[in-house]
Amino acid sequence: MEIQIKEEHGFRYIESGGKGETLMLLHGLFGALSNFQGIINRFSSDYNVVVPILPIYELPIFQVSVTGLVEFVTKFVEYKDYPKVHVLGNSLGGHVAILFALANPDRIASVTLTGSSGLFESAFGSAFPKRGDYDYIKAKTAETFYDPAVASKELVDEVFGIVNDRNKAIRVVATAKSAVRHNLADKLHKIKAPTLLIWGMQDTITPPFVAEKFHELIENSQLHFIDKCGHAPMMEKPEDFNQLLSDFLKEVSHAAASSK
After folding, report:
1. Predicted confidence (pLDDT) at residue 29 exceeds the cutoff of 50
2. N or C: which end of the chain has fewer CB within 10 A?
């Protein structure tokens, strides 16, 4: 599917218009739409795949926080009037997905988290050392993956551009600090929706023990590890990821239909 960004009512997003239920994808701090290309290609016909572009760089600086992004997503879903969504989040997007699900339980069909922040994360830190050093940024971006080759020049260029834009860099740091402060350990038991956890076995940013803790704290959850895979399984192991997601969504829909 060719990605076409729609702009209306202050929102920028893509929407596949597929015939099925809505599958909403939430990206991370350095998330590009290309991060979700594999999911979009696989699910855009059978689901209405939606990707709202989170306004990490557009929000007023005093609103730059995880909660500010949750408010944005809530307004977006209300504007689009989706009755229920399957929400999927990677990294910071997982954090936003959790808080959105907690605040809007009646709008949630299921939750999928992959490399989610919210309990523990180890990323760039609170600042960007060597901001002008392309090789440094390339190496840090490659650490996201088990296979460094997945860090394409396009992706490295995008991260380098963000890091070296002072306005964007300030907002990235502020959002990252907000995420660290906003620990979810005492809230995860309130998630009642079916939850899928897909984690890279070699994730160094949110290591496997983080996934195990999510699994322990979210009652109705299932956990799957993908070997030889880092922080973004949907990019690094798209076929494995999509199969797990497809099986889960079918299982959730079947259970929902059976309960009626």
Report:
1. yes
2. C
Alpha helix ranges (H) inside the chain: 37-43, 66-80, 92-103, 134-142, 153-163, 166-181, 208-217, 233-236, 238-258
For the chain, list the domains and their CATH numbers: 6-258 (3.40.50.1820)
Of 218, 221, 240, the residue nearest 229 (C-alpha): 240
List, in order, residues 6 or more apart from 83 with CB less than 8 Å away: 107
Angle at 88 between CA 84 and CA 93, to 5 degrees: 120
Nearest of 95, 32, 86 to residue 66 by alpha carbon: 95
Give the SS3 label for residue 32. coil
pLDDT above 70 covers a percentage of the chain that reads 95
Q: Measure the CA–CA gap between 193 and 191, rounded to whole angstroms.
A: 6
> Strand pairing of 11-15 and 6-8?
antiparallel
**Cα–Cα dist 186/66, whole Å:** 17
Is 115 in contact with 200 (CB distance < 8 Å)? Answer: yes
Residue 200 to residue 191: CA distance in whole angstroms: 23
Contact 33, 3 (CB under 8 A): yes
> What is the C-alpha to C-alpha distance for residues 191 and 165, in angstroms, rounded to an integer?
37
What is d(CA 153, CA 160) in angstroms, rounded to the nearest whole number? 10
Please list the helix, strand and coil fractions of the chain in percent, rounded to the nearest 5, in that order. Answer: 45, 15, 35
163 sits in the region (left: phi over 0; alpha: psi -120 to 50; else beta) called: alpha
Phi, psi of 128 (to 5 degrees): -120, 85
